[in-house]
DNA sequence: TTATGTTTTGAATCAGGTTCAAAATCCGAC
DNA sequence: GTCGGATTTTGAACCTGATTCAAAACATAA
């Protein structure tokens, strides 16, 4: 009988509904103003029903973060599918995608930061944490693939590091710059004119430091800007006007 | 009359008392279990009195973070006072200090991460935020000084970047690795054996990428370990057994 | 010593996440 | 159809813990 299975479907449909509504509320007034009772009411369900899906408010927030994470993973899939660049350019493309994503979804960046704070993390359900973990699967695969290809071509010498260990470098540059840019007013007080250019430049610097051929000239803005534009066009389907919007 | 001034002194003495007690409670059971009423009682004051000093619980947490931040700034002062290394080694020393500090004060790292989450940040008082900002003053000065010295000696070509813009690179590597290491189980799942070595290696990679002379061989563990040990000894007064403890 | 301003107190208030006993609904069996 | 037990939904009550504020205590000045 399909009864059980229909129930299952209805259940996950309802979960999607909750998440949809929650996302709308969050993007409207920030995730710290999200209220469980209000969310339930907005979906015409009782508060308790919400708790059949999410073990706590934190659990719901992590679920939201995971949902968006899937869109984030798409960045990596797109880069993985891109055949138009050298491995180094593909690694750079990930940095571009990362930056653009966090610009398009500023709430997501904050939410991620928030749910990863131990105080919050501890209050989520193990299942949801599991889910969060396995989201990173494809990410690792794509990155490791890029590094491996670079090694195979002779563009890069791993010098005893595994592909993922190697990738931690550029990754931490991305994470770090994001973290710094979230400190309100920091860049202003350091008199940094163009955080975006600085970010891309540091990525190039780091890749150079890894001796990842072909080396780039980090000081050559024009070249970097051109690469960024090309990546946005070829990998992420962002055309002219959009690109400008993203960049601004 | 010294009445007003005596009052002032008593007031800030009491604030120090509150912070002292709060720190003890936090280090004992984590900052998420800190309770305003319990803290007040532990200090033999009423709850309301606490609110004469801190506009909210979040404000108190930020005050705690700021207090520790002063110890953090000491790292930069020590590096600034160190005369035994090249500018590059001094920059590297900052990374060592940063890592060791976050190991010695794991609660502080978490707390900092937490108070910087917008949800929390918004709930602090403007004065306290101001205070948090100006803590970074000496940090910037020391770092900018190191970079400037390297440029003056001809070890480093700024290529149009200001000293602080340049320093953002290594800084973001530090921040980024810290952020990654806080994601529970990430390093394990990536099969990273020695996060510490990887961290120092990436710092070297990045400095190489900046073409900061004298270049280092990032793959040379022995050399990096020796440099780390030397920094811990000469700059931070950490001798043998302690160093081992720190490293473990 | 009294009038007035200031600080402290802690019980009351308030917010909002979480629970759970009762009501409603579903579903297979007769 | 409808009965009875299992499952799901409900939402008011509960609970924790931050915050407030009117009264009390205290300090200062006249």
From TrEMBL, chains A, B:
Residue ranges: DNA binding: 35-54
TM helices/strands, residue ranges: none
Domain HTH tetR-type: 12-72
Coiled-coil portions: none
Gene Ontology MF, one: transcription cis-regulatory region binding
The entry's keywords: DNA-binding, Transcription, Transcription regulation
A Pfam family matched in the record: TetR_N
Keyword Transcription regulation applies: yes
Name of the featured protein: TetR family transcriptional regulator
Species in which this protein is naturally found: Thioalkalivibrio denitrificans
